[in-house]
Amino acid sequence: MAVVDKNETAMLAVFGNPVEHSLSPIIHQHFAHQEGRKLSYEKILVAKSFESSALEFFSAGGLGCNITVPCKLDAYAFVSELTDRAQIAHAVNTIKLKYADDGTGFYVGDNTDGEGLFSDLVRLDCPLDGARILILGAGGATRGIVPTLLTKAKLKSLTIANRTVSKAQDILTTTTDFYRKKNISLDLHELKACSYEDLATAGGAFDVILNATSLSLNHELPAITDEVYSGARFVYDLFYTQDGSTVFTQKAKALGVAASYDGLGMLVGQAALSYKMWFGFTPDIAKTLEHMRSVLKQRAAAK
Ligand code: ATR
Question: Which of 92, 142, 163 most suits a substitution to test ligand 1, by most atoms within 8 Å of the C-beta?
């Protein structure tokens, strides 16, 4: 049976490739410290198949796991039950082993990325109410966050701009189709997919801009004109850095955007929701976030 007693060591892990860099063990140990729980949380490098690594882990007593790049789709295929948001995102970042009444174990897959972002935007007082929001990029990260933004934030409009426009359109179509089939109405005036070039004349058109491309990793900027930033009150990069600024947030700041943040809070936020799924305990995100900033600072100083 899954261990839920706080004094017995609960066995968790993060699966990915690469996985060495993952901050998840430190984040979850900090949550466990808050709750007063004993935890083992290892990093498992998936060299061959996610399924065989995961089965080995669970048969050894694993209670749940996180999944990072590039295994989120494999985890989606692996589980026997999916939450709505994992279903729409077509990606699973959290698995919990549950037991049916007859004692049979089954795996539930969730995707906490969108809620993690949303909780961070709320924490940062992002002006979401009635906002015209622009998301740059249409990869896995965007697929994960759009369902939450469409259902939880009271947006005026949502635009996804991407180098490959069809991917942005696909996210909007599959997400809205999903909700239509479930008879969930989305109270939103405008949804749009476009290219970066289409934004050239969109000066002042967006209140909030989220960078969900992988460009910051290489210190590169999305190909949008300076005018697109003008009028924005809040920008957020899903990528995180040691000091909380990325090329994208620096650019926005230089152009006069009042509030600009990196994605460390989203990372801690999505982890907190995983932890809640496993143990029912809601960690204090702000405390762990502060801890993680100092961990990153120490790491940078040690280099
Ligand atoms: P993730 O899971 O982090 O979202 P991903 O699924 O590989 O990663 O998506 C990366 C995003 O960054 C995509 O929107 C990608 O644009 P395409 O869909 O057109 O590939 C974007 N991206 C990556 N490199 C880029 C580049 N050099 N120029 C513009 N966009 C780029």
Answer: 163
Q: Is 213 in the pocket of ligand 1 (CB under 6 A)?
A: yes
Find residue 41's DSSP bridge partners: 12
What CATH number is associated with residue 227? 3.40.50.720
Radius of gyration for the alpha carbons in the chain, expressed in angstroms and rounded: 19
Number of domains in the chain: 2
Q: What does the alpha-carbon distance between residue 65 and residue 81 come to, in Å, rounded to a whole number?
A: 15
Residue 33: which domain range?
A: 10-111+266-302
Closest ligand 1 atom, CA of 164? 19
Per DSSP, the residues of 173-231 read HHHHHHHHHTTPPP--SEEEEE-TGGGTT-TT--SEEEE-SSGGGGT---S--HHHHTT
- Whole-number Å distance, alpha carbon 161 to ligand 1 midpoint, is 11
CATH label of the domain that carries residue 34: 3.40.50.10860
Nearest CA owner, ligand 1 atom 14: 137
Per-residue model confidence as pLDDT tens digits over 255-290: 999 999 999 999 999 999 999 999 999 999 999 999
Residue 280 counted as domain residue: yes
For the chain, what percent of residues have pLDDT higher than 90?
87
What's the pLDDT at 1? 44
From 165, 195, 214, mutation site for ligand 1 pocket: most ligand atoms within 8 A of C-beta: 214
Do 140 and 245 reside in the same domain of the chain?
A: yes
Ligand 1 atom nearest to CA at 222: 29
Does 79 map to a domain?
yes
> For residues 27 and 15, what is the distance between their CA atoms, to the nearest angstrom?
15
User: Quick one: 107 and 118 in the same domain?
Assistant: no
pTM of the entire predicted model: 0.93
Q: Which atom of ligand 1 is nearest to the CA of 137?
A: 14
Same domain? For 152 and 209 the reply is yes
Q: Does 189 lie in the same domain as 96?
A: no
- Catalytic sites, residue numbers: 72
